[in-house]
Structure formats: structure tokens, C-alpha cells
Amino acid sequence: MKISIYQMEIIPGDPQGNFKKVSAWVEKEVQNSKPDLIVLPEMWTTSYTLEDIHIHADENGKETIPFLQTLAKTYRVNIIGGSFANKVDGKVFNTAPVINREGEVVYQYDKVHLVPMLNEPKYLAGGQKVPEIFELDGVKMGVIICYDLRFSEIIRPLALEGAEVLFIVAEWPLARLNHWKNIQITRAIENQMFVVSCNNVGAYDGVTFGGTSMVVNPWGDTLIQGSEKAEETLSILINVEETLEVRKKVPVFSSRVRHLYKQGL
Q1: Which of 9, 29, 42, 120 is flagged as catalytic?
Q2: Which helix (H) or strand (E) segment is 242 a member of?
Q3: Residue 120 and residue 32: Cα distance in Å, rounded?
Q4: 208 and which of 18, 48, 161, 203 could share a cystine (Cβ 3.0–4.6 Å)?
Q5: Sign of the CA dihedral 104, 24, 198, 203?
Q6: How many other β-carbons are positioned within 10 Å of the β-carbon of residue 51?
Q7: Which contiguous run of DSSP H or E holds residue 58?
Q8: Domain edges within the chain
Q9: Would residue 146 show up in a list of annotated catalytic residues for this protein?
Q10: Which residues form the CN hydrolase domain (predicted)?
Q11: Tens-place pLDDT, residues 34-74
């Protein structure tokens, strides 16, 4: 599976400007790299303009979702659609859409864990369902959003259900870049899956975002990594069957002793 990651510098508070950026990038990337799947960052339509998020949020995804569907159908590419500010019944959720090559919405996830350091709980509503498995091109996958990465308890069930790739869409700050890199490697090793992340670059409202989008294989090896500051594209071909090979060589899941674990773990 060939994956292209857009480590994007988002235009704060300008959904239409960001639509144009993404559209131009997808057209160019499809021509150059012919990816099977593309990945966008968290809140790519608005960035973290939280004080004005009710103004910039997309009502029920009526603009963002059709935009991504058109790209998917036009270029016959699967899309992990980052996330966007999605206003539903007066509340704004941080929503990650997944679109297949036919332009069908195969999955949507609302970010469960809201970041206290960025005052997210003041402006956003948290999702009420943990991430679930979805499939693209017959590959089992999961997607989480930024701060979710710190919560292994929502990721482990995806691995136990057969997820081969975990996508992380983010606006992760440069100040905690060491956590960003090391937790991804840990999640890949402990769940024996590929971890693919897409972070943004640039700064807004005193927060500098750290780039460093990554692809980590099930052994915990970093296959590709973006820079900290530059807007760029990361393109890589991964062999998803490596997850099965690693799980056979180190049979972590069959070695679990569930009856000794505390309930819910």
C-alpha cells in the first residue's frame, strides 16, 4: 500500500483557503506518486482557532465531507481525512472522516480525549464512542486524533480486533515533540502494527506545531520522518503483511493471560 502524508501548514480560520491548498496538493501528489491512500492533519480546515470555532465550524460536515468525497472519486484514492471542526446540534466536535476510492464515507470518529493544555474542553464536545475498525482496500485500520495517542486503552482493542495500521492525525506541539515520537514507536511495538501519523507545521496563538510526521513499522522502526518546521509530503510504500509476520514471530496476543488482568484491561 502506497501512502502519501501531507504535513501541512494550515491557514488559521480559512476553510476555503485550506480547501484550495489540499485540492492542489492532492492533484499534484496523485500525478507524481500515485498513492493508494492520502492522509491529512487534524483540524486542517481551520487550525486551532478555538475562540472562533463556532463561527468556522462546518455544520454537519456539509462542506468538508463532499469536498473529500469529490477528491476521492476524481482521483480514485482513499482518504484519511484528517479532522475538522464539525458542528452538530449546536456542539462542535473534532471529527475524523474516512473516505474510500468510490467517495463513500466508510467511517467517522469524534475525538474522545480533549486537550486541557489547549483549552479544548471549553470550546469542543468530546466524542462518546471509542475508535472502531474500518477497512480500506481490504486492510483493517483504525484512526485516532492527536491527544488520543496518550491513551493506550483505546488503541489496544483495535489491535486485538486485527487492525494492521493505525493512523494518527494531529496538531501536536513542538514543545512535546519527544513524547510524540516515542509514544508512536511504543504503540507500534506493543500492538505490532504500522503507525502512520500526519502532523502540521507552523504556529498559531502562541503554539508552535512540531511536524515530524512518521511511519513506524510493527518492529518499532521509523521508516520515514518529516522535519519539524517545513511543509512537505511524505510518500512511502508499506507491506501490510509485515504485521502478520511480526505477530507470528512474537505472539504477544496469544500470550495474554486475560483472567489475571483487572476488569476492562
Answers
A1: 42
A2: helix 242-249
A3: 37
A4: 203
A5: negative
A6: 12
A7: strand 58-59
A8: 2-260
A9: yes
A10: 1-240
A11: 999 999 999 999 999 999 999 999 999 999 999 999 999 99
Residue 95 has pLDDT above 90, yes or no: yes
- Determine the length of the chain: 265
- 3-state SS class at 146: helix
CA dist., res. 33 & res. 26, Å (int) = 10
Residue with the three cell numbers 484528517:
82
Q: Which residue has the cell 480486533?
A: 161
Q: Is 63 a catalytic residue?
A: no
In whole angstroms, how far apart are CA 68 and each of 21, 71, 78, 84?
13, 5, 10, 12
Tens-digit pLDDT profile for residues 138-168: 999 999 999 999 999 999 999 999 999 999 9
Per-residue pLDDT reduced to its tens digit, 228-242? 999 999 999 999 999
Pick the catalytic residue from 21, 146, 181, 198: 146
Ordered DSSP codes for 160-179: HTT--EEEEE---BGGGHHH
CATH fold of 2-260 reads Nitrilase/N-carbamoyl-D-aminoacid amidohydrolase (3.60.110)
Question: Is 44 within 8 Å of 10 (Cβ atoms)?
Answer: yes
Yes or no: say if 168 and 146 are a contact pair by the CB < 8 Å rule.
Answer: yes
Residue 73 annotated in active site:
no
| CA–CA dist 260, 257 (Å, integer) | 6
From 87, 111, 140, 181, the catalytic residue:
111
Is the four-CA dihedral 69, 99, 80, 48 of positive or negative sign? positive
